[in-house]
Design goal:
six-stranded mixed β-sheet; DNA polymerase, domain 1; alpha+beta; 18% strand; Ubiquitin-like (UB roll); Beta-grasp_dom_sf; single chain
Length: 174
Amino acid sequence: MSQVITDKHGIQHYMITINVNGDDYTRVVKANTLLVNVLRDELDLTGTKKGCELGDCGSCTILLENKPVDSCMILAIEADGKKITTIEGIAESSELDKVQEAFINNGAIQCGYCTPGMIISAKALLTRNPHPNEKEVREAIAGNLCRCTGFVNIVKAVLKVSEETNDKEVISNE
């Protein structure tokens, strides 16, 4: 539960602690502070993009408790005590994650603005369903807009990761 702090003008602020990419961060935020702003402005995790700021484009997609969400639609105080994974935390080591590699190798990146959100959405899908079909991939990335690639190579990249994943392998983000 967030600790409430009232400043000398009577305005309430909230002390929150969030776990981002495995590290705990404590910050004091206003009630209306968006999670995307904490990630980008407070924690300097600029891989999470700010696009429409209406929850329509998906460029700010992160994993909140392992579920993809638009961080522009989440108040920072709603994330208090929760686990967050951004594009910077997708890889489990200094190597790129399989999904990141597949995007590069399959030409699924052009301008790159949508890429972090697309990768996060694809990662979430592959974690819960390591062998999706094309329709399931398209549904999983439906909340992410891309004006450059037409989605063909993005879908191809996700399906390639699926093909290369054996049934015993888990595409986890733990």
